[in-house]
Structure formats: C-alpha cells, structure tokens
Amino acid sequence: MRNLKLRQLTIAIISIIVLLLAGCMPTAEKKEDKLTVYTTLYPLTFFAQEIGGANADVKNLIPPHADPHEFELSPRDLTKLTQADLFIYNGAGLEVWIKRTESSLAKESKVKLLDSSAKINELNQNDPHIWLDPLLGIKQVEQITEAFCKLDAKHADYYNKNSAALIQKLLKLDQDFKEAFSFKHKPFVVAHAAFGYLATRYHLEQLAVYGLTTTHEASLKELLHLKKRIQQDQIRYLFFDGTARPKVAEELRCEMGATALELSSLEKLTVKERAQGDDYFKIMYRNLRRLKQAVKD
Q: Average pLDDT for residues 146-156, to the nearest whole number?
C-alpha cells in the first residue's frame, strides 16, 4: 500500500513539473512569421505561391477530388480559415458557397477575404474561368500582390519583385498565344465551355457540347447545329477537360469520328499532372499546342 501511494505521488509530481515547464516555454511562432494563405483553385494557389515565395505558406483549401462550384466547408476547414491571414477565392460566381462563409469568418476571425475577380471589368457574369486569359490572370496577380503587401508591409519589396517576374511570364504567354493563332483557323469543340475568355482574347471560336457546367447540356437543336458545324468545318478533334468523358460529348465524338484530346481548365491538377511536376505555365503551353493542332488541321 505504501509503495502504491509513493508511486502515485511520484507520478503526480512529474505531471506538475511537465505542466509547469510547458507553461514556461514560449509559444511557437506561426511558421516563422510566414503569411498563412488559403485558396480555392489551383491557378490562385500557383499565383500566390509565386508571389509569396519563402514568406508565405499557401495551400488550396479544396481537395483534388472536390468540385469548387459545389464545395461545402467542414468545421475543420472553418478552423483553418480562422487561423489564416488571407483567403483568396476566384469570385465571378464560381464559389457559390462563399457568401454563406463570409459572415461566420467575420465573427470568428480576422482573416482577410480576397475576391480576385472584384476589379476585373471584362467579366462575363456566367463564366468564372478568368485565369485562362493570361491578361486577366495578371489582374488577379495584381490584387493578390496588393493584399500580401498590406498584410506584410515589411516584405512588400519582395512581393512586388516576385509579382513583376510572374507578370512578365504571363505577358510572354499572352504574346505566344497571339502569335500561335495569327493565321486563319477553324473552330474548336469542347465538352465543357470553360474557354470563353481565352477564345475571345485570341479571336478563336469555341463550340461546346455542355455549358459552363456539365449539368447544362446542349438541346437537341443545338446538338444538330454542332454536328453540322463539325462536318462543315471538318473538325477532327473534341476536347475533354482532364480524364472525364461526359456521356453526350463522348457519344458525339464517336458518331463524328473525332479524336479525343485533353484541354485543361486548370481548376485543379490531375493526379497525372501532379506526378509530372506540371504547373500553370506548363499546362497553358500544352493547351496552346493542342489548340493550335486542332484549329489548324
């Protein structure tokens, strides 16, 4: 009995010492004073990482398998955001769930929310895919840079320097697209009408089986018109976004004898793209080569 009491007393003393030591230890600083940033889309993640460099910890809040259009925040996601400095979202109607989140975050945290489309005047109200136009991507980059500089003014020069380098790359991408499509070309056909801004910028014609989402399917009349255009313009390719093959688009491809090619909307990286070490520019240049092949042949 005496040994038991002695053992219990020893354990109690050790526990008190551990607690006292823990209380005396300084709290670990948040990732060496880095900005904690969350985004909703891969292009925004890429832009923010390029701008923030070593001074920002940037992560995409939405898992690779989830749809950014219909995503629902979990309590764990909300906790992450309440501890963050900045939450960047695309806007332009993409993340319909954002409005439900804003009030909760305003009450529970000081995280800044950034709508990266807020200062873009060329918006088509129904199309959120602004990052596929390099010049509109620059406007997103500028807004992200401004937010970083406000949150971390002592590193403003660093963020501005990184931003300038990124903008130069986007300007080069824009110039390469302009030169690639300087010739007379035929339309291109996509399963998912995500490439409207890109088509408008470079004077291309996008024909789509589905609208801006795969739930917006072409009517019978629209499908008949699409078949007529494919035959009339001798279109040989049908583009799919990633590996998904929506049923109506695949049936049309088979019926018309078209070849399937991937054209990435870049909303998220596929498993294959991650494994290959792809990034925004590598994928955009691959899109360029495939589009050029399709509208020229």
A: 98
